[in-house]
Amino acid sequence: MPLKVLMKTKDEIVKDWLPRYTGMELDEFGKYILLTNFNQYMELFAKWNNCEIKGKGRPMQAASSHNITMINFGIGSSNAATIMDLLSAIKPEAALFLGKCGGLKKKNNVGDLILPIAAIRGDGTSNDYFPSKVPALPAFSLQKAISTTIREEHKDYWTGTVYTTNRRVWEHDNKFKKLLKKTRSMAIDMETATIFMVGFANKIPTGALLLVTDQPMIPEGVKTSESDKKVNEAFVESHVRIGIKSLEQLINKGLTVKHLRF
Questions:
Q1: Average pLDDT, rounded, for the chain
Q2: Whose CB among 22, 190, 196, 200 lies 3.0–4.6 Å from 55's, allowing a Cys bridge?
Q3: What is the pLDDT of residues 86-141, one digit of tens each?
């Protein structure tokens, strides 16, 4: 019988699990990571770069081209924490999350871009990594690169905080809506704070660019299958393009985004 392999350290575990989850070998990953929740994003990346999507039938899918790897890690804070832990196996230079969010302000329109300067930790998952009072912050230099790319694309964006929750169905809950108003958050999602915190725990510089897909504070603004389809058709290609160009800006200029001493 073959000897059983014992994995005692975190490094041993993640180096085994990242290929197992994604179907991609460690040496195939780029040093710059795009994170997403959606198949459409993966398909666009693979089409534009003429590369293979690996991991079909596995918990996560991945595709690599020109030192950039896009990973569809699924939805929710637990999945976000998992991929940020697993990425410690390759020690990426940067990880940029291209996520969808609900706009919480009247001034937010569907299709707007939000560049979060911080995230409120309503996810719960990140409490396993840091005390609840530790703020969830992105890497400034990565957010700066995204800002530059957006302006080069002749677009604009909002900045502010995003509230990250582990609840998917809350739009009916008026008590929860009152809490959201008190936080003065610009948007709500399920992953950003977790990615920032677990990235920090693993010494991975992180950032996020969020696309407003609905206005969940009002009944007529709650996302439907039809409205989501229209958003995908109108705004997703631009969202993905800005993400790719932002990382290319860092690669081509040889910039580092690790502005903190861990």
A1: 93
A2: 22
A3: 999 999 999 999 999 999 998 999 999 999 999 999 999 999 999 999 999 999 98
Q: Distance between CA 247 and CA 245 in Å, rounded?
A: 5
Query: Under 8 Å CB-to-CB from 143, ≥6 apart: which residues?
Result: 115, 117, 207
Single-letter code of the amino acid located at 255:
L
Q: Residue 222 in contact with residue 216, Cβ under 8 Å? A: yes
Q: What is the pTM of this model?
A: 0.93
Sequence-ordered alpha helix ranges (H) in 51-191: 77-86, 140-152, 174-183
Q: Classify 203 in phi/psi space as left (phi over 0), alpha (psi -120 to 50) or beta.
A: left
Gap between the Cα atoms of 167 and 189, Å rounded: 9
Length of the chain: 262
**What are the Cα distances from residue 244, in Å, to 10, 17, 45, 166, 171?**
30, 26, 9, 28, 32
Structure tokens that stand for 109 in this block = 């329109």
pLDDT of residue 259: 47
Domains recognised in the chain with CATH numbers: 10-253 (3.40.50.1580)
d(CA 200, CA 211): 23
- Kindly report the backbone phi and psi dihedral angles of residue 117, in degrees, each rounded to the nearest multiple of 5, phi listed first: -95, -10
Residue 215, pLDDT > 60, answer yes
Which contacts (CB < 8 Å, 24+ apart) does range 81-84 have? 81/125, 81/126, 81/128, 81/129, 81/194, 81/198, 82/21, 83/35, 84/194, 84/195, 84/198, 84/199, 84/201, 84/202, 84/204, 84/206
